[in-house]
Amino acid sequence: MDDQRRPTGPGEPSSPAPRGGAWGPESPATPRPTGSGPPGSGPHPSPFDPPQTADAPRGDPFAAPADSPGPAPRTGSPYRLPGSPADPASSSAESPFGSTAAPGSSYGSSGSPYGASGAPAGGAGAAEGADRADGADRADGATSAPWERLGAEGRTDTPAGAEPPGTPPVPPGAAHSGPADPPEPRRRSRKGLVIGIVSAVVVLALIGGGVSWYVLTMPQPEDTAEDYAAAWREGDYAALAGLATGGGDPAAAYERVADNLGVESTEVTTGTVTEDGDTASVPFEATLTLSNAGEWSYDGTLPLVRADGEWRVDFSPAVIHPDLGEGQTLVRTNEWGERGRVLGADGSRLDESPSGSVQMIVGEVGTATEDMLGDLGPAYEVGDPVGVSGVQAQYEERLAGTATTAVRVVDQGAADGEVPEDAPTVGAIEGTDGKDVTLSIDPAMQEAAGAAIVDQTKPTAMVAIRPSTGEVLAAANVPGGFNRALEGQYPAGSIFKIVSYDALLTSGMGMDAPMDCPRNVTVGGQKYKNAGDAAYGAQSVLEAFATSCNTALVQQVADRLDGAALVESAEKFGFNEEIKAGLPVFEPSLPTPDSVPLLTASSIGQGQLLTSPLHMASVPAAVAEGSYRSPLLVTEPAPEGRPEPTPIDTAPQLREMMRAVVTEGTAKDVGFTGEVHGKSGTAEYGTAEEGEELPAHGWFVGYEGDIAFAVVVEDGESGSGAAAPLARKFLDAL
Known about the structure:
The protein starts with a strand and ends with a helix. The chain is elongated, with a radius of gyration of 56 Å. By secondary structure, the protein is an alpha+beta fold. The strands form nine sheets. Strands 3, 4, 5, 6, 7 and 8 form a six-stranded mixed beta sheet that branches. Residues 1-183 and 210-216 have low confidence and may be disordered. The protein contains 21 helices and 27 strands. Residues 461-731 form the Penicillin-binding protein transpeptidase domain. Residues 220-328 form the NTF2-like N-terminal transpeptidase domain. This is Penicillin-binding protein. GO terms for molecular function: penicillin binding; peptidoglycan L,D-transpeptidase activity.
């Protein structure tokens, strides 16, 4: 018998090629041998038959010639899997590679590596397998290519001409009992090819990633340009110089321009980089804010070069401004407009007032000197008008306005001298006239206050305040030369008792509490007495306040208060707080008393307490209004950060007590008319000679309607005798 075998792939057993039947020429009409399909299925093509064309018969390309005698047909495949039944009849459907898998077989429960469970090789399952000969997956998840399934399941190769191990011998006459469908040549495994392709892709990706990382992390000119611009914006000229190359000193050049122009802030924005090999350029726009002028913007270019892998700005003066050459810098010249005015509450010009007290508040306008230029800045030149005191100095920038400024190019040596007339102008900022400053001073009130004290032979100050707003209506001083009204520092004396009684009432003492006013009393080792060595005996709270009895008060303070409680009440009336009046003024203070003697001394306005006439006028104003308001002197522009009014809960009781001072107390003989409320005080100061009394200032504070006031007469000795009559004179003039 002619034993022909078809070529096999590596590890694949050679297959005997039968001379006829399914491996030889076969017409589509050739009936299939028994066993090639299920009963009644009819002829079906094998899944291993080569595709047929219109002009070629279907057959195996490895089959024997058509005229070769073939063996008798057999009913089964020459190959069976280990454990497969030898008898074809033991299985209703047999695979070309063996029968239905036995339990434990590597083919699982389906019984066939490519067909449905139990489907014979040549039946309907085979036809479906033929449709999927390209290896597509079946709906049930099985792979239609049996050689791929066998490879996946661990098939064992068999030498040519040998049966697989464990296969029972084929009975005589059954070797070719039927035309078995031959297995198609096993496809080459694609696993190695896929691994190779994936590996190549990974290698290329790694190489590409490394190149990308290098490209993305290598220095870029735009990074240097932005860092340079950021350093310029922040005024960090040392950092800026570290990013530059070329000649000169970049840090010194930039600092010189900033000083010459009075640069207050800088904004720099960069544009799109243009790169050409080892050179690049980046456009920028710079906006400089100049003192007393405004903003000046211009365009320029940052040239960059690459050296040793780093990008740097190729510095020259033209980098600062495109019109600068070597050895040149920028300076400014200024022309001032009309200066603003200082106005009163009624709109009149206080800067033209004949009152010396008003002029102390308004201040003076002088001319800039060489020594002043360092503080004034480059907007000023020697001889320019400038405020030198008071409101004129405090509000110089507002009153002066902004100068019309020209930015010019000069040689560096000319920056500190005269600017040549032909120096090129590279920029200009239009100036503005100055703005007015409005004060709360009422000229009529100011005149009344001045007239009330003008004849004083001792230094005297008077302040009037509107309780409902805290606005300062008048501030008068005699003599001139020192603004005692706003800046004087004095102990308060007995006028501070307004605060002390607020603390006592707040602590729970009622208006009906009994008071005792002996001639002398010792509290905490400290001896106290009353003015004129007076003694009133048993008193009510109202009477003790009206007569300003020291001995009655210190006893109650020692029994009911501590240092913190007294300071808490004092701070409700503005002590230990900055007075944001719009001008610098003295800030009243009361340190927390840390002993009984200091506590009791503070309660009568002595000890470490200091205040001013301006502040003490705000104390009766708080009683009148029911809330403490910090004094306000400048109304336009209004000062920032002014505190909110502080409620005074004891104001009703304090009003009654202050009225009693005028009607039946220390000021009853002054001759006030109308509903005047007040408090007199004598504040000791200095050091007494042996056997003599301490010198004392005389105070009187009070209010009538919406006008509160304070008067102090230095060394006046008596509040009711020296200060109260001046207050009456002031009120009578209104």
